[in-house]
Structures are given as C-alpha cells and as structure tokens.
Amino acid sequence: NDSGSGTRKRKSRWADDEPKLPTIQLPDFMKDFTGGIEFDPEIQALNARLLEISRMLQSGLPLDDRPEGARSPSPEPIYDNMGIRINTREYRARERLNKERQDIITQIIKRNPAFKPPADYRPPKLQK
Amino acid sequence: QKLMYQPGALATKVVCLTQVVSEDELKDDGEYEDILEDMRQEGGKFGNLVNVVIPRPGPDGQPAPGVGKVFLEYVDVDGAAKARTGLNGRKFGGNIVQAVFYPENKFAQGDYEA
Per the domain annotation, does B52 fall within a domain? Predict the structure, then answer.
C-alpha cells in the first residue's frame, strides 16, 4: 500500500457480488406454509453464503488466493497411482468449500424442513 | 447450423463495460481516479490486467467517442472471459453493468466506438 496514513478509506462503487437472481416473492397464501421462514435473517445469511460458495465453485477462479507468506504449511502430498498429486492446494480449497456448503445446507434444513436441498447434497452420517 | 455473429460474443483479451459511468462523473479528476481505481481492483480479481481505459469527455465538455464505457485489457483471453462473466450484470454505482468482448484491433487503434 502507498503512504498509508493519509489515504482515506474509500468504498468501491462496485456493489457487492449480490445474487443476480431476483428473489422470488411468494404469494401470500404460501407464507402460511413456510411461516415466513425465509425472512429469518439467519436463514438469509445462510442462503447468501450458500450462493456465494456455489458461485465460487462454479467461477473457475482460483479458490485459494492467499499469498505465499499467509498460508499455513501444506500437508504431506498424496499421489494417485499415476503419480499425480491429489491433495493440491486447489483441491483442498475446493473440498473445504464443499464441506462448508454441505454444512450450511444441513443447517438450513434443520431450521426449515421444507427446504429442498440441491441434488448433490448428502445428509451427514448419523454416527459420529 | 446457424452461424451467429454477435458483436461482443467473440472472445478477445479486451472486455468492454457499457453503461458504467456518466459524463459528469468523468469530468471530475478525483472521481475519475476513483473509478479507475475501482476498475483496477475489481478487474484484477479475474486475471492480470494490462490496461484500463476510461474514455473521458473533452475539457470543454464536448462529447468524445466511447464515453460511458470502461475497457479492461487482460494478458490473455482467459482473464477477459472470466471478467466478462463475473462483471456482467453487476452493479457499479447503481448502474447495471453490461460486459462484452471488444475487438482487440480496434482497441489497439484507440477506436472506442465499435
């Protein structure tokens, strides 16, 4: 960063990367079914994060863009039988996001049993 | 099979954002710098930016070609493609941005009106 102290904190004119899909307003009679649950701020936060993760996973952009110095040490490499490394940084970042995504869906379902999870959602195993 | 030619559909290294900024905003040096910085920051998230061009109106306010557009030039088509997808439909200062590819030759010639 340049000089620092004098730089005023400026807000970017770019709006946050909000969901481009317009939120669908349910007709009034539908609200009885859901109990207005999707207006629960916690659910909204979870939904927002879910969308964000889905977008990150689909964007094809590097998922782990932390600079060299800011990363923790990598785990021991694991190779497949072709000798290609499996647990690359990118792979681990993707796994992490997938895991978070599954957890969020689990939480949403807990709050709203009527929520229809995406097709690739796997409910968590019951045993610990 | 139908061959479609749509301006902005052919992938290039240059992304043109339309309906982004107003002439008034560009007249002010401070705002112009701010916008430039916003573009560099946001555009840099998609790939390596080579150049950012924001055409400005003349000093007496006479209209200049390409005013209102913002051009982001990337090192490669890949970065430009990501930026086009990522920025299209986003809001910038209340305007909904449209992102299209821009012909590289025209951009190189300083022709901002295609």
Answer: yes
